[in-house]
Every structure is written in C-alpha cells, then in structure tokens.
C-alpha cells in the first residue's frame, strides 16, 4: 500500500531537492562538445559552454555522464627506422602462441 501512495499513474513522484540548473538539452550539448574536443582545458570549456553555472555544477554533470578531462600523454614520434624495426619484430613473431 505504501508503494501505491508514492506513485501517480504508475510513475514515481518527483524527489525533493534543489532543481537542476541546466536542461537536458544543455547537458547533452555539454557531453557532445566534450567528446568532440577531448583536449580542451576544463576552465576554458566551462567559460565557453556554461558560464552561468558554477564550475562544480559542471564537473558534477560530467561525473554523472562518467566523462573525465585528461591531459594528453606525450608520446615519441615513430620514425621510419623504428617503424621498420617494429614491422620486422611483428613478422618474426607472427605465428607465436602462448604455449611457446
């Protein structure tokens, strides 16, 4: 009986708490832009996308979507000599199995 009192037309009633500062469309745009520009700095991203909400609010929204900002790892360039060495190694061990 208690469950029936918590539902209206089979749907859960709205929860108490502070209303969201952004709409679902803004949240989707935020995530889409972050996926398209993963190397943008977070503070720059905040200033361009959602300057009207706090930085922490934006971070919480990204956390909800399980999106993180990260720093690009610098990797050495692969020069032609290294590429040839890697190819030779791959051809040598092409038929290698775990048992060996």
Task: Provide structural commentary.
With 100 residues, the protein is mainly α. It has a domain at 16-70. The chain has 5 helices and 2 strands; from the N terminus they run H-E-E-H-H-H-H. A two-stranded antiparallel ribbon has the order 1-2. A hairpin with a 2-residue loop joins strand 1 (7-8) and strand 2 (11-12). The longest helix has 13 residues, at 24-36. The radius of gyration is 25 Å and the shape is elongated. The termini are far apart.
Which structural traits does this protein have?
single chain; mainly alpha; 5 helices
Which SSEs are present, and which pair or pack?
Elements: H1 2-5, E1 7-8, E2 11-12, H2 24-36, H3 42-49, H4 55-64, H5 80-92
Antiparallel strand pairs: 1-2
Supply the helix-strand structural class.
mainly alpha
Q: What is the end-to-end distance?
A: 65 Å
Q: Proportion of β residues?
A: under 5%
Sheet with the most strands?
2 strands, antiparallel
* Poorly predicted tracts of residues: none
Order of helices and strands: HEEHHHH
Quick synopsis:
The protein is 48% helix and 4% strand.
């Amino acid at each position: 009986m208690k469950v029936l009192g918590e539902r209206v037309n089979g749907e859960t009633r709205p929860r108490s708490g502070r209303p969201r500062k952004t709409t679902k469309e803004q949240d989707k745009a935020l995530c889409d832009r972050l996926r398209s520009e993963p190397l943008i700095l977070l503070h720059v991203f905040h200033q361009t996308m959602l300057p009207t909400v706090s930085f922490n609010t934006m971070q919480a929204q990204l956390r909800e979507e399980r999106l993180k900002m990260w720093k690009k790892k610098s990797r050495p360039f692969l020069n032609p000599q290294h590429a040839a060495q890697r190819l030779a190694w791959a051809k040598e061990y092409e038929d290698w199995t775990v048992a060996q």
